[in-house]
């Protein structure tokens, strides 16, 4: 038992260490990020944030107005949009180089309003810097639009700040959110407990680290946050440039909202993959990504939602250890259905925890936990299967040639009750023992050559063995010309009825052995081979079943006075002599009381058997030698 426990713990520890190692080197990162995406998609659907609207440049708009839009046309777009009174207007268009005509007009209209914001590209990591319009009077009216793309091309993170050695610079989304929140008196400030953390309203935004959630060695430069894409894949409210410039937009659609001028034209390729890109929304435009982040920041600042949270690394490690430990239960699953139920149950628990985490905005580490649980279950089940195969081989080596196949199967099914590892436990039994012996074997062996004697003897043993197994007896041993069988071992009798059943089975077996032996004698006679007699002794009583022998070689046996009595009954010399080839069956009083009252038996007398001091009643079964 201790060796089993040690093997189980060692397998769980090996899986635990392997999963931690795979996670540390990033081998699970893609799977964990995919699980995060699935969690976002599995959340209950929420409506898109009505505080944001996209002013969209479509392919039709490109055909109508050309590309790039002139500064004059951009000035008209800003003027028309501001007439509809948005609280914040963001322009997702680079203007590091003027596009005449109308550059002065664009500068005047933007300079006149503090709620119009422009973009620039911070650059770095292989991308060039694209500055904000040089005519922008207030630097605070610009925000960078650098977008972080994970392996696989999916945008899961958003930047809040970047710096190049100077003061931190705000992202476009953060700039829009802060401008919108200013009217509510909410601004950026340090967290009271940790001054390096950003606090918006009641929410403290903890920056993403290289190993946050399922990431492994991610570039965590700047101040990053996980995007929750709440409301996706449903699109934000949207109007086209043509609708805006033609005066076909309901003022209520933009009033007091964050409006972002962007482009969905395929030819401009301003689109990105998101966790929802496999759910009917193939891509999100740059403006939509910024809208999602700005919406998330506003909701956090107003206490309408919580940041996407991850568990502390220590908690994730503890959960992994727990699920590896749960996988150890495979050692207890002795049936395929139990193993299947355990595996499905563990996966169901993990799925529910993952789904609850997704609904609550928690990145639950489902991938390493599932891997740890499944691997531990598989390894534990495999080790148990190997051990069971060895134990089964050892158990079957003891019994497979000595009991019927159905008894062998029952022995295996009840192995935990009977065996300790590869050895059977000593156990007190109430059983019936049968000894059968060839009377007249010695003169036959003297007449025949050794090879002929062996064949003659096997012709006797084979049918006798078949009869014993057919009656669910266990053949304890062959000893020369004798057979010893036990009824009620190694599967012990539980009740008086079981003991009676074993005794009746032994007597019925003896009758059938005598009938088959008569046929055997007839066959020998026709073949001009020697014939013989058959003596059978049967006795019931207490005995102990146990392994006998050394660790290198052992076998199962039964010991006790009842065994000795059965042997003495088989050799007992009756006053009238033996019964020749008819065969005889003698039983003791302890067996007689277990048989039906109408069982054809005859008391032949009281005898003091060898090894006993008191006489014992002996009975002959079928005194006339009748058929069973």
Quickly list its features.
628 residues, alpha/beta, Alpha-Beta Plaits, 3 domains, 8-stranded mixed β-sheet, 6-stranded parallel β-sheet, 26 strands, rod-shaped
Short description:
The protein is α/β, with parallel strands linked by helices.
Share in helix? 40-55%
- What structural class do you assign from the helix and strand content? alpha/beta
Uncertain runs are none
Mean pLDDT: 88
- Topology, number of strands: 26
Q: How large is the count of helical segments?
A: 19
- Report the β-strand fraction as a percent range: 15-25%
Instruction: Tell me the count of domains.
Output: 3
Radius of gyration: 45 Å
What is the rounded distance between the termini? 48 Å
Largest sheet: 8 strands, mixed
- Oligomer category: single chain
Task: Describe the fold and architecture.
This protein has 628 residues and is of the alpha/beta class. The chain folds into 3 domains: 2-19 and 311-394; 47-304, no CATH class; 421-621, Nucleotide cyclase, GGDEF domain (Alpha-Beta Plaits, 2-Layer Sandwich), CATH 3.30.70. Helices cover 42% and strands 20% of the residues. Strands 19, 20, 21, 22, 23, 24, 25 and 26 form an 8-stranded mixed β-sheet that branches. Strand 2 (88-91), helix 5 (103-111) and strand 3 form a beta-alpha-beta unit. Helix 1 (2-24) packs antiparallel against helix 12 (366-399) and helix 6 crosses helix 9 (286-301). The two termini are 48 Å apart. The model has no long low-confidence stretch (mean pLDDT 88).
